[in-house]
Amino acid sequence: MYAVLEVGGTHVVAALVDAARRQVLVAHRLVLDSQGQAGFILETLARAVEGLGPAARALPLIVAIPGPFDYARGIGDFTGVAKFQALRGVDLRLFLTERLGMDVRFVNDVTAFGLGQFLLLRRPRRLVALTLGTGVGSVFLADGRPVTTGESVPPQGWVYLLEYDDHPLEESFSRRAIVEAYESVSGLRLDVHEIAGLARRRDVAASRVMERGFGALADTLAPWVARFRTDLVVIGGSIVGSWDLIERWFTPRLASQLPDDRLVPIESAAGTPDAALIGAAHHCRELDAGPPTLH
């Protein structure tokens, strides 16, 4: 059994997870302002775990949190992102250990999501998991283990570090990029779900913006899907609500750039929102088990 804390930009979820059975037994959610002051953020994280009850204090705590972050040391970085700037340089492990008296570990939130998908989706041998919402999160998994180095994956396995048309990918595909692109051609500032709704109704400007965004993502990702010899691409995040647009503009564009012998299925995330909680607990269980024994 593990206590899990999943930290997002607008909320935090604390849960008790049976890693062996891949079950979330108890979970509750608190509102969190990722752009708030450090004291407020830290207090919210601690209260979320305390809400699991005193018995949870005897369990290991695994914290799934966005990067950039020093996961080994438990210290915030968050360089180049708007979220959690107040936690830059803050020792979260020290704070949580002293406040809660628990053994605290950390994992990237997208890695936790990907591990959860690996467990829930037939354990594909080579899996690329994406979270598409505010930005582009990614993890490349080989036999359930993150691959962060080598010629078959982007630096650290992070697609958002890649460029499209000589600019960072997230300048072409992200919530901000889509909102600004539509505003530039229409004069209206709408959110992504509103732009997606217009695209479904064949609005020309909205359709062009969404097609260009998904095209940029597909063009950037395709070489890495091929190099990694991917068996499955799974997509989570708020963009899943626009799955019909993914199938219209992303899936065929990606498929058209893969070798003829690489028919790679693209699926919507399974088991959300529990997948990241299950994946984080699995990661903690793997840490406790240690490296595999070689025979």
Automatic annotation (TrEMBL):
Gene3D superfamilies: 3.30.420.40. It comes from the Bacteria. The keyword Transferase applies. Keywords: Kinase, Transferase. GO terms for molecular function: kinase activity. InterPro entries: ATPase_NBD, ROK. The keyword Kinase applies. Pfam families: ROK. Belongs to the ROK (NagC/XylR) family. This is Glucokinase. It comes from Bogoriella caseilytica.
